[in-house]
Write a sequence for this structure.
């Protein structure tokens, strides 16, 4: 059965990326593509269409906030939901990410059920 | 009247008397017939009244029969209502049971998902930890594990010297390595109260092999300046070779959860081997054992 949704995970830490991919594997019909950092994320975005993007904030080369800005100006993905994942938990960081166009914000340490619920909510998949 | 010979005795009545008797007879006959007529009329009226009464009674009877039939129908309906009410109660009971089952299954499913997620976290952490022999990468993975999976803001790794008289900080995150002092095992020589408290706990964990994990909330823990959030022994072949000290937690991490204790257990068992393996590999200048050496290991 082919995937109904596609998701891009942008995370520089292999461990976190693996955890996110595992969590997202629990969502039915979701194909996950991985990217090492913001630049790699942009490259992957240019090569396909994604229904949802999960990105870390603190990454080398291009951080998650810059990626969100770029996504919002991309004609193909400007309306694609973006979930920002970071270790920062302050209200200011949350505000900054949301102001730049992120749809949701998850703080580390992440819980797989929390990630799954947020992705389903944004993709409008029944829980 | 009869005479003595048995014949009728003729009574002679004077003519004026005869007229009177005739009149009396006529009057009597008239009265008799009149009363008879009146009585007949009375009988007819009574008959009419009784007939009407009979009709009324028949009507009442019919009404009562209808009412009786209606009452029976109502009783039947009430019986049906009772039956339906019982069925409704049974159905409601089944619905409640089904709802309870559904909630139980849903809750169980959620628990299993969380358990699965925790196991995946442990597996991935362990996999990453042993995926490399490069010291820098091992330390990076340990940092990521503590920061991103446990939610530690600052932490450090202390390894015992060969004489086991000191615990030497070899890596840290969120706190500069230069700010960390060695922990003397067997004597608390640190002048700073915070260091002294942490040193005392690190020393105790190193000597006893029993982890120290605070169960207090983040705010309470942060006020206890001389107590780390956690201190876990690093073991190799049942020998404690050092400790991991978590000084503070991230803002959003209020307290440790069940899986954190599992992480600490896993770290206690795996961090030391990963670190020592990486150190040995570094000392060997990144050279892998020769095939001959590997062959000899098997014999």
């Amino acid at each position: 059965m082919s995937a109904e949704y596609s998701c891009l995970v942008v995370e520089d830490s292999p461990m976190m990326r693996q955890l996110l991919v595992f969590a997202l594997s629990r969502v039915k019909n979701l194909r996950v593509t991985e990217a090492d950092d913001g630049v790699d994320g942009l490259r992957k975005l240019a090569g396909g269409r994604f229904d949802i993007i999960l990105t870390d904030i603190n990454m080398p080369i291009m951080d998650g906030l810059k990626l969100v800005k770029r996504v919002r100006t991309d004609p193909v993905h400007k309306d694609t939901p973006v979930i920002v994942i970071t270790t920062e938990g302050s209200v200011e960081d949350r505000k900054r990410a949301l102001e730049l166009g992120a749809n949701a914000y998850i703080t580390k340490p992440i819980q797989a059920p929390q990630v799954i619920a947020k992705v389903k909510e944004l993709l409008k998949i029944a829980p | 009247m009869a005479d003595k010979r048995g014949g009728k005795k003729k009574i002679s009545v004077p003519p004026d008397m005869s007229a009177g008797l005739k009149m009396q007879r006529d009057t009597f006959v008239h009265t008799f017939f009149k009363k008879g007529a009146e009585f007949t009329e009375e009988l007819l009226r009574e008959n009419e009244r009784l007939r009407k009464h009979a009709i009324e009674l028949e009507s009442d009877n019919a009404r009562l029969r209808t009412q009786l039939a209606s009452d029976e129908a109502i009783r039947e309906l009430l019986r049906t209502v009772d039956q339906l009410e019982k069925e409704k109660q049974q159905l409601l009971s089944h619905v409640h049971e089904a709802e309870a089952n559904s909630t139980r299954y849903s809750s169980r499913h959620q628990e299993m998902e969380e358990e699965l997620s925790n196991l995946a976290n442990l597996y991935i952490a362990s996999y990453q930890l042993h995926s490399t022999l490069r010291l820098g990468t091992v330390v990076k993975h340990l940092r990521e594990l503590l920061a991103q999976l446990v939610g530690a803001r600052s932490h450090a790794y202390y390894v015992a010297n060969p004489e086991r008289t000191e615990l030497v900080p070899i890596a840290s995150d969120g706190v500069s390595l230069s700010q960390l002092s060695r922990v003397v095992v067997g004597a608390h020589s640190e002048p700073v109260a915070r260091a002294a408290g942490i040193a005392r706990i690190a020393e105790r964990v190193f000597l006893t092999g029993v982890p120290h994990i605070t169960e207090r909330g983040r705010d309470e823990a942060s006020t206890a300046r001389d107590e780390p959030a956690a201190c876990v022994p690093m073991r190799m072949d049942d020998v404690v070779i050092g400790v991991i000290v978590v000084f503070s937690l991230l803002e959003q991490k209020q307290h440790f959860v069940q899986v954190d204790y599992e992480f600490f257990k896993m770290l206690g068992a795996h961090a030391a081997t990963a670190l020592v393996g990486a150190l040995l590999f570094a000392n060997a200048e990144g050279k892998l054992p020769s095939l001959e050496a590997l062959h000899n290991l098997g014999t």
